Amino acid sequence: MTQMGSTQHEQGRGWSPILRLLVSLALVVHLAAVVLPPLASPPPSSMLANRLIQPFRPYIGLLYLWHGYRFFAPDPGPGHSLRWRLVTESGDVREGTIPDAVNDWPRLLYHRRFMIPEKLSGMIPPLEAPADIQQQAQLEWGPLVRAVAAELLSRHDGASVSLDLVEHYLPTPGDVLDQQQQRPVAADAWIDRVRPLGTYALVAPDAGGSR
Predict the structure, then answer these.
(1) Are 167 and 192 in contact (CB under 8 A)?
(2) Cα–Cα distance between 15 and 19 in angstroms, integer?
(3) Confidence label for 181 from pLDDT (cuts 50, 70 and 90)
(4) At 154, is the secondary structure helix, strand, or coil?
(5) Between the CA of residue 90 and those of 39, 171, 200, what are the distances in Å?
(6) Would you say residue 157 has pLDDT above 50?
(7) Are 199 and 159 in contact (CB under 8 A)?
(8) CA pair distance 69, 109, nearest whole angstrom
(9) Domain extents for the chain?
(10) Are 192 and 164 in contact (CB under 8 A)?
(11) How is residue 126 annotated by DSSP?
């Protein structure tokens, strides 16, 4: 009787094959949802990862799993910033960058503003991309850039503001050694890439927005 009771107790604790299968599938789905976002974004990322992530997007958004871990990986890619030049209503000229390492304080504010140009860098195609791709992409990044421009104009009593997306050159170990040893460097080394995003101005509400 002791052996029979032990067997029944073990059977009562076990999972059915169907339940085990469902739990295993759930774990695989969740693991994929954790692994795919760093592989799919931020750029550069593979086309395969971007295709595989599509059905997982609602789940990833629901659990807030969309993290850019590759910012802190051994090969994070170049950094980006927004450079702005603003003309005030009185004609004064002001310039700045987003993020601003000196004025963005506390540090959490700097980090949040740091994410704005990084977000844009993944939405804006290179200048050599075809015109139709450029136009389609601008439908996505345009509202974000206009919102940034409107905030700058409002804060600084601006009449117009020009924005550039700056991709900061990421030196290789060889570039650093060449500079330290004062050897000739490549023509494109230590040069940032600048992408103009347009000039924006506040207009009357019935004129259709800004720019």
Answers:
(1) yes
(2) 6
(3) confident
(4) helix
(5) 48, 41, 17
(6) yes
(7) no
(8) 19
(9) 2-72, 80-207
(10) no
(11) P
